[in-house]
Fold this sequence. Notes:
Elements lengths: L1 E5 L4 H12 L3 E6 L7 H10 L5 E3 L5 H11 L3 E4 L6 H6 L1 H22 L3 E7 L23 H19 L4 E7 L1 E3 L18 H9 L6 E4 L11 E2 L1 E3 H17 L4 E6 L5 E2 H12 L5 E4 L14 H7 L7 H14 L8
Parallel strand pairs: 1-2, 1-4, 2-3, 4-5, 5-6, 6-11, 7-10, 8-13
Antiparallel strand pairs: 9-12
Amino acid sequence: xxxxxxxxxxxxxxxxxxxxxxxxxxxxxxxxxxxxxxxxxxxxxxxxxxxxxxxxxxxxxxxxxxxxxxxxxxxxxxxxxxxxxxxxxxxxxxxxxxxxxxxxxxxxxxxxxxxxxxxxxxxxxxxxxxxxxxxxxxxxxxxxxxxxxxxxxxxxxxxxxxxxxxxxxxxxxxxxxxxxxxxxxxxxxxxxxxxxxxxxxxxxxxxxxxxxxxxxxxxxxxxxxxxxxxxxxxxxxxxxxxxxxxxxxxxxxxxxxxxxxxxxxxxxxxxxxxxxxxxxxxxxxxxxxxxxxxxxxxxxxxxxxxxxxxxxxxxxxxxxxxxxxxxxxxxxxxxxxxxx
Length: 340
C-alpha cells in the first residue's frame, strides 16, 4: 500500500514510517519541518534501508497539497501534521486554531477531489478534558478539552464524522493516544523538540545529558498518589504499531469513522517517571517544584479494551524500557538531530 504521512518527520510520524515500511508499505512524507528536521528522513532511510520520498510543503498551501495528492497515487493518508504543545496553545490560541484546523481543511479538500478517502487521524487523549470518568473510554461524552490544542482535536473529529456521514466512501480511523515517550531502539530516531521541551521525558533527558540545569515539575498539589500529575505513558513504538493496526483495519473493514484509544490503561505520576529515568541513566536528576501549568489536568489514563478487541493491539513495552530507549537516544544524540 502506498501511504502518505503528513508530519511524517515528527516524533510519532517518524516511528510510524519505520513500522509501515517494515510491514511492506511504501511511505512518502510531507512536512514543513516547523517541528522537525530533514535529517529525520535520512535516519528513517538508514533504519529501514528504504528510499522515502519527502515533500517540504505547508499543508495550508491548498494548491501545493492538491497537486501532491493528485499526483501521488496514494491508497491512504496518516495525518500527524499539527502544532502540538498544549501550553503554547493556551498562550497563542489563534495560532493553534488557525494552523491545526486549516491543515486538515486543506488535506481533506484535496483528498475529496482526488482520492484517496482512507485516513488515519492523530487525535489525542486531551479531548476527554478533566471531567471524564477514569479510565477514559471512547464513548464518553461530552468531549471537552482544557486547552485550545485539545479543542482543535475535538473540532477535527467532528469534521471527520460529518465528512464521512456525507460520503460513505470515506474510511477513517481516529486514534486518541495518551503520552508517547521512548525512542527507536537503535538510538537513531527519537524526540528532539525545538526550544524548551513541553513534555516531561525530553526535559528529563536534556537535564541528564547536561543541556539543562534542572527539571521543572508543574504542581505537587494534585489529588494523586504523590501530588504530581498522573498520565498514561506509552512507548512511541507501541503507538506506531497502533497506527499500522488501525490502517489495516479500516482498509479491510466497512466504511465509517472508527475511534480507538491507544494507551496502557494505568496512570504513572511525574515522580514515578523521574525515578524510572534515573534508573535508566544512572544518575540523579535535579528538579524544582513550581506552580501548575495552564491547560494541564490532574490525571488521565485510557481504557484500551476496544483497541485490544478490535485491532488485536496492546502495549508491549514497560516504563523502564521507555526510559532506557529515551536515554539511549539522548546519550547518542546530545544535541538532538544535527545535519551532516
